[in-house]
Amino acid sequence: MSINRRTVARSVRALGVVSASAALALSVAGNALACDISEFSAEAKCDGDKGIITVTDVDPSGVPATVTVYLQNNGADLKKVGEQEVKGSREGVTITFAENWKPDAEYRIHVKAAGYVDEDITPNLTTPSTACKKEEEEPPAPSDTPTPSETASTPAEETDSPTPVPSESDSTAPASSAPSPAAGDSNLAETGANSNTGLIAGIAVALVALGGGAVFFGLRRRGASSDR
Fold first, then answer.
1. Buried/exposed 54-63: b ≥16 CB within 10 Å, e otherwise
2. Is 20 left (phi over 0), alpha (psi -120 to 50) or beta?
3. What's the pLDDT band for 64 if we cut at 50, 70, 90?
4. How many whole angstroms separate alpha carbon 89 and alpha carbon 56?
5. Positive/negative CA dihedral, 73, 76, 82, 84
6. Quick check: pTM over 0.90?
7. By CB neighbour count within 10 A (0-12 exposed, 13-18 middle, 19+ buried), where does 107 fall?
8. What pLDDT band is residue 94 in, cutting at 50, 70 and 90?
9. What share of the chain is helix, strand, coil (3-state, %, to 5)?
């Protein structure tokens, strides 16, 4: 009987060791299958001329997780870029956030899977030092040095001759063209307006009248002498 008891006790102990080992193995296996922050990674990329931020989940258990991206400024959240849900796989599942990121910018990516993960991906994501779209080079500012054409035109403007002042003869020319009072008197003298024409005409009329009277009286006398 005592031997049997010892055998049973040994068997029980062996079963206890096996059970403990199995429990430990199951625990390790369970932890390996559980969602963990180490299974998430983030990267800043370019999609043509536009910037994007990608987050990849390689959790083989496919536990749903919510990923939120924040733009950082001096260690504080400046803005929320976006939020998406992802279910990982052993091959990895990637989600994309459209973000026109600036060079050397910093982003905080937070992952939350209920009962498993509620923390940030560390360290924070820092974008590349080169932007996706190259800034267009601005044309050089025009210099203040005048061009040869401008230099050549300057003396012409400075040497413009002043408007000529009319001479004394030119200024008096219009006045000389107008008839002066002396010229008017000479014209009247030439046409006889100021001569003795009127007096001569009066004497001629008087002589004609006298001649006519003389003829009249002469004819009258001849008639009277013929009647006798």
1. ebebbbebeb
2. alpha
3. very high
4. 10
5. positive
6. no
7. buried
8. very high
9. 45, 25, 30
β-sheet bridge partners, residue 125: 107
Residue type, 212: G
Question: Helix (H, G, I), strand (E, B), or coil: what is residue 55?
Answer: strand
User: Which amino acid type is present at position 7?
Assistant: T
Asked if residues 40 and 67 have their Cβ atoms less than 8 Å apart, the reply is yes
- pLDDT tens-digit profile of 129-183? 999 987 666 666 666 665 555 555 555 455 555 555 555 545 444 444 545 554 4
Q: Which residue in the block uniquely carries the two structure tokens 């050089």?
A: 140
Residues contacting residue 69 through CB under 8 Å, at least 6 positions apart: 42, 53, 55, 80, 81, 82, 83, 97, 99, 107, 108, 109, 110
Helix (H, G, I), strand (E, B) or coil at 164: coil
